[in-house]
Write a structure and sequence with these properties.
Chain lengths: ~200, ~550
């Protein structure tokens, strides 16, 4: 037996704190951003230091179409969150499906690009420093796209089966934050790898 | 709050005895922040004993010249495992353990923001630690080469390249750091989300206990420091497994890049470890001085300042690689600048002590030891921040003495202090004060014998990581003193472990608030019930229990 003083509770209706989901995702984004920065620094540091070819200028083509697809998926996922907030389930499913589709196109584009690079240009991660830094940076981003697509597909399945309801808006918003981050990283990677580095 | 009288609740603590398997199942599957916190602490203490034992073996080897107590290969493994274990699997877990246990209690919450993530983070860190030690059995691999990692805790390239580190020892090292890093980021994310989103009504950021503030700053620092380490481990793994060339100088890769990446992690890591120690001091020193902390806003500002400045000092570990004069100057000045916010902290603690009614409990004695030793450690730090001085002494025992002064003299002393202070809350029993004071004096003597005298062979040019030395170098007497101090520390630590076990069964009952303290964790029973607080508390000042005990003169009138 032991006794403990209890601090009495007084009513304090106006006590509202930020959503823990949003805060948690913001923290994850900061941590992930630091990882990406290190890989981007490595890419820039080793730019033009490869002992052998091929160089970025020889083999890289700007993936304009697939990048546009990825960038627009930010808008569609945002639309999905708004639709869920307003309780429009069919519209939510539609926008989620569009997001998954656009993300899928981007991933397919990367796959095609890598196929071309590996089979035709004989550039692998072992070839030179460009291959090392290119595949690791773009691959790290693609890994994040895959994770995002898996989670978005799950959300789509829940939405189609009707278990995604407006009270899940907060959770879908957290997921959409992650997806916006993946897109934002691509803005940087695209600029560094395909514009400045080429 | 003044309108309501304090009420008390009674909690029955006589649960029937359960089967061992039930208890085990309970602990393995728990998502309770208190149990996870205790598991973190227990796991760190086991590694503390292991890594301490490794240090003892090294000190025996170095006690006399031309010694062959262990082989050179074993010696390399010992300093690698000692450093890696102490930083990643003792320091961080023990601090996260206290954070996990205390933060929800201090802010009046039921649990952390993400209890399952909390359990995940613990178990993945624990797995990382096991993996590191599994290397003793598994690292030979198909090559039949290598045992435990032996590349030093920095694992500088190209030592870690396949050619120079055959077998799997470096693989175990990098994997265990990677997993530990994932767990660390998970827990830090949890701490920040808890501090921001789970505070009880009335606890504005301005009223949050300083411990929670400092843990939040530390966690934010983790995001930007552990992540680069994780990224570097991914690169190292790609190098070792897929044959990429990040750190392969043959293909144009750079060994210096690894140094940068490692120290971008490595220096802020010191602050990741020391901020929780500051956090303990911020709670313990006021309580045993019977005064509110001096300069609360300055303490918060100084902590945030340390967080930012610590991100810009990493290359002071790399003065000897030959940077440009501009870079050297920048890192010298940045390193010196960090002593300003730390100085503010020391002055605030002194001002808290000043005029207080100081209670010299074992906890407070360790805290005062911390204050003194942290100051000395900071002073040798300023000496080493001067690039020309560092050129002379980089990689010498002077550096080893300096950072052990920080890690042992400051951080470990404050961890011991925290144990004496919060053990009653965690176990419901007081630690023996008598044994605590023996522990303090023995450890203090051992510490000063070891680490004060370790500076001298460093100044005389004894390099770190050296396997043995010739008798005519004049280092023998100093090394003998250093090694004999280690024995005192080992005895003191064993006494501490014995004290914890003995007091758990025989110690006097603690009651909810043995120190007459002021933060919320002392308002619930010891140990706290699973739900922490029967009723969610409301606070109106930084010292809610002071307000409760002195309704005629509450803090809220002054803040």
């Amino acid at each position: 037996m032991s006794e403990a003083a209890v601090i009495p509770q007084s009513q304090n209706a106006a006590w509202v704190l930020p959503s823990r989901g949003i805060v948690g995702m913001a923290c994850l984004i900061v941590a992930e951003a630091a990882i990406f920065i290190i890989f981007i620094v490595a890419y820039l540091y080793y730019l033009g230091k490869s002992v052998t070819g091929p160089t970025p200028h020889d083999v890289l083509e700007i993936p304009i179409f697939t990048s546009i697809c990825l960038f627009s998926s930010s808008a569609t996922v945002h639309a999905a969150v708004s639709a869920l907030h307003q309780g429009k389930r069919a519209t939510t499913s539609l926008w989620l499906a569009a997001t998954v589709l656009l993300g899928g196109i981007f991933l397919a584009g990367t796959a095609h690009e890598w196929y071309q690079l590996i089979v035709h240009d004989h550039l692998t991660i072992q070839t030179n420093l460009f291959g090392t830094t290119f595949y690791s940076l773009v691959g790290l981003h693609a890994t994040h796209v895959v994770v995002g697509l898996i989670m978005l597909s799950l959300a789509l399945v829940f939405s189609l089966t009707g278990s995604l309801t407006p009270r899940h808006t907060g959770k879908l918003e957290v997921l959409s934050l992650y997806w916006h981050f993946v897109d934002a990283v691509w803005v940087v990677v695209f600029t560094v790898v395909y514009i400045l580095g080429r | 709050m003044a309108t309501q009288a304090p009420v008390s609740v009674t909690v029955a603590q006589t649960a029937p005895r359960r089967l061992v398997l039930d208890v085990l199942h309970d602990w393995v599957t728990t998502v309770d922040h208190k149990k996870i916190g205790l598991m973190y602490i227990g796991y760190a203490l086991i590694f503390l004993v292991i890594a301490g034992f490794e240090a003892l073996l090294m000190r025996i080897q170095l006690a006399i010249p031309n010694n062959h107590f262990v082989s050179p290969q074993i010696f390399n493994q010992l300093f690698t495992m000692h450093g890696t274990t102490m930083v990643f699997f003792v320091g961080m877990p023990i601090l996260f353990g206290f954070g996990n246990y205390l933060i929800p209690l201090m802010i009046g919450a039921r649990d952390m923001a993400f209890p399952r993530l909390n359990a995940f983070s613990f178990w993945i860190s624990a797995f990382g630690g096991l993996l590191l030690y599994f290397s003793y059995f598994g690292a030979s691999g198909l090559y039949g080469a290598g045992s435990a990692p032996d590349v030093g805790w920095w694992a500088y390239a190209p030592l870690t390249a396949r050619v120079f580190s055959p077998g799997h020892s470096s693989d175990y090292w990098t994997l265990s750091i990677l997993l530990g890093g994932v767990g660390t980021i998970g827990t830090s994310l949890n701490i920040v989300a808890t501090a921001i989103s789970m505070r009880c009504p009335g606890m504005t950021l301005n009223r949050m206990p300083l411990l929670v503030w400092l843990y939040t700053v530390m966690s934010c620092l983790v995001f930007v420091t552990i992540s680069p380490l994780t990224a570097a481990q991914i690169m190292l793994m790609l190098d070792r497994y897929l044959g990429s060339h990040f750190f392969d100088t043959q293909a144009g890769g750079s060994a210096v890049l690894w140094m940068h990446f490692f120290w971008i992690f490595g220096h802020p890591e010191v602050y990741v470890l020391v901020l929780p120690a500051f956090a303990f001091a911020n709670e313990i020193i006021p309580v045993f001085s019977r005064k509110a902390i001096f300069g609360y806003p300055a303490m918060v500002a100084a902590s945030v300042g340390i967080g930012f400045i610590s991100l810009s000092v990493w290359a002071h570990h790399m003065f000897t690689i030959g940077m440009t004069a501009g870079a050297n100057t920048f890192f010298v000045l940045a390193t010196m600048a960090i002593s300003v916010p730390t100085g503010i902290k020391i002055f605030n603690w002194l001002a808290t002590l000043w005029g207080g009614k100081i209670h010299f409990t074992a906890s407070m004695m360790f805290a005062i030891g911390f204050l003194f030793q942290f100051l000395i450690a900071g002073l040798t730090g300023i000496m080493l921040s001067v690039a020309p001085f560092d050129w002379q002494l980089s990689g010498s025992y002077f550096v080893v003495a300096h950072f052990h002064y920080v890690l042992v003299g400051a951080i470990l002393f404050m961890i011991f202090s925290a144990f004496y202070y919060w053990y009653p809350k965690m176990s419901g029993r007081m630690l023996s004060e008598k044994m605590g004071k023996w522990h303090f004096w023995l450890f203090l003597i051992g510490f000063h014998l070891t680490f004060d005298f370790m500076h001298i062979p460093g100044l005389e040019g004894m390099p770190r990581r050296i396997y043995t030395y010739e008798a005519d170098r004049g280092w023998m007497m100093w090394n003998m003193i250093v090694s004999s101090g280690a024995i005192f520390q080992a005895i003191a630590t064993l006494l501490f472990v014995y004290n914890m076990i003995w007091s758990y069964f025989k110690g006097p009952e603690a009651g909810p608030d043995p120190w007459d303290a002021w933060t919320l964790e002392w308002s619930t029973t010891s140990p706290p019930p699973v739900y922490n607080f029967a009723v969610t508390p409301t606070v109106e000042s930084r010292r809610p229990l002071w307000d409760l005990k002195h309704p005629d003169d509450p803090d809220s009138h002054y803040e």
